[in-house]
Prior knowledge:
The protein is 36% helix and 13% strand. By secondary structure, the chain is α/β, with parallel strands linked by helices. The chain folds into two domains: 1-52, no CATH class; 80-272, Rossmann fold, CATH 3.40.50. It has a nine-stranded mixed β-sheet with strand order 1-2-6-5-4-3-7-8-9, sandwiched between helices. The model is unreliable at 270-275 (pLDDT under 50).
Amino acid sequence: MKRELYVRFAMCQVPYTIVRLIEQFGIVPSHELPVSTRLRKRYEQALQLDWIEESILVKGDPLFPTVLLTIPQPVYALFYRGDPSRLTLPRVSIIGSRTPSPHHLSRMRFLQPFFHPDLATVSGGAYGIDALVHRLSLKHQQTTIAVLAGGLDRLYPTSHASLFERILSNGLLLSEYPPGTPIQKFQFLERNRIIAGLSSSLIIVEAAKRSGTMNTASHALDQGKDVYCLPGCPTESFFTGTNQLIAEGAIPLLDPEEVSKSIRLNVDKWESRLL
């Protein structure tokens, strides 16, 4: 399929289920698509769209992270601001609560080995742990990638405008949503699959049982990714989510140096113990 069609479909948020049909059979009349009227209208709009070249990576582009094509609810296009070549670095996703515990700074210091110039961090640009991840990466002159839940011309949270500008100097802003897309609550849950999907491992600093962090963990587990959690005191609500994940099979993060090394060298977590 021509690149132009991928861009048109992405601009109109045509789901990958339809894109795959077009890849297989070519352009078909909208009434033949086995989808809802709403999605047929998106498809029709894409075919009629005036050509606009956006800062976008699509399936087939050399820098597009093809791993996103293999996850549940695949992603075939990403809008970006910044330097997309940063996507060639090994990546680790690090997330946590928007309202961190009183101990969050010492927990972040424990993660120092992940703030390494040969590694890119991925997080969600949100309040709390996400923002700290991006700021620590910038402090260590490390590439950091923020995956956002709306169009990149409508950055949220607005109070992080200066942080997002700093990220552009040494990283990347990504979104599956085209410019002009307003922020809606469900989009935060949708973008979590991208945060999980971009990396082989997900590091969770701390999380309560009911949180967006737990949603991202669920995506990572569904994708077969390694999920590492920092254990916490079981009597404190800040750690109930991460402790629960550990009880259900997530890996307690006890040696960040070992895990960081395995990600940078792209080896299995068990093989890394032999390095």
